[in-house]
Amino acid sequence: MKKKVDVREMLSDEMPSDSRHARQLARRQLIAEIVIAEGSIRIEDLTERFGISLMTAHRDVDDLVSRGIIRKTRGIVTAAPTSLIESSDVYRATRQSDEKKSIAQTAVRFVEPGQAVILDDSTTVQQMTTLLPSKVPLTVITNSLVLINELKGVRDLNLISLGGQFYNWCNAFMGHITTSEIRRLRADTVFLSLAAIIDDIVFHQSPETIETKRAMFESAAKRILLADHTKFERRALHRFAALDEFDAVIVDEDTPIEHLSRMRSKGINVVVAGGKQPD
């Protein structure tokens, strides 16, 4: 039997009372987690669990459907295929949050005041945003709508927003317009994260993501990869780059020692957030 999620308890911790948008986002994340955990659920059941109207429940579900996380058929909500779920920013934001924060704290050490940095739309890189005010003056270039909204009010931070075709599933702009804008720029450092690491090569399941991040990669003097330990357990279709093409690969302390030893034996500059060293 699949474990039920205690929604009321989670809501009290996850939903700040001073922000309607934050409450809405937290509720949708919880809905996604419930559907993924339980496989399927009736929309009417969501109204009872969350104490919301049927209209609000449909609106929340429709948003998650548009992001490719869940499916809705005749009042029944079901989980989408795993590859689509794992691509979604709503789903990714709930995974390995502690590891991502630790990696972000290490990554921000590579940022110096006065620099221009490129930040991608990954949820790991998003964890850097709260730390960047300590690095101003700074120029940040990003295609992520989430980062744009979080950084737009930071004093002495010059924000360059990359336009293009908006992809709802990742809350970011991608495509040829976006890559054309990127290629006109030159940054000091780019911070990236992708879906999987296979044989010390980075992969992602979305060709649009590969194209956009490749343009970012080529437009920066220094390239930093952020990767929690689960990236080594996943698979994805499209090749991006070998690990030795990055100036630094930042991983979390749960990364198996055999991966650390192997990468370092190949001359890859591995930085462990938390400080684990190979024997």
From TrEMBL:
One of its GO terms (molecular function) is DNA binding. The keyword Magnesium does not apply. Residues 24-79 form the HTH deoR-type domain. Residues 1-20 are annotated as: Disordered. Keywords: DNA-binding, Transcription, Transcription regulation. The keyword GTP-binding does not apply. Gene3D superfamilies: Winged helix-like DNA-binding domain superfamily/Winged helix DNA-binding domain (1.10.10.10). SMART domains: DeoRC, HTH_DEOR. Pfam families: DeoRC, HTH_DeoR. It comes from the Bacteria. PANTHER family: AGA OPERON TRANSCRIPTIONAL REPRESSOR-RELATED (PTHR30363:SF44), HTH-TYPE TRANSCRIPTIONAL REGULATOR SRLR-RELATED (PTHR30363). This is Cytochrome C.
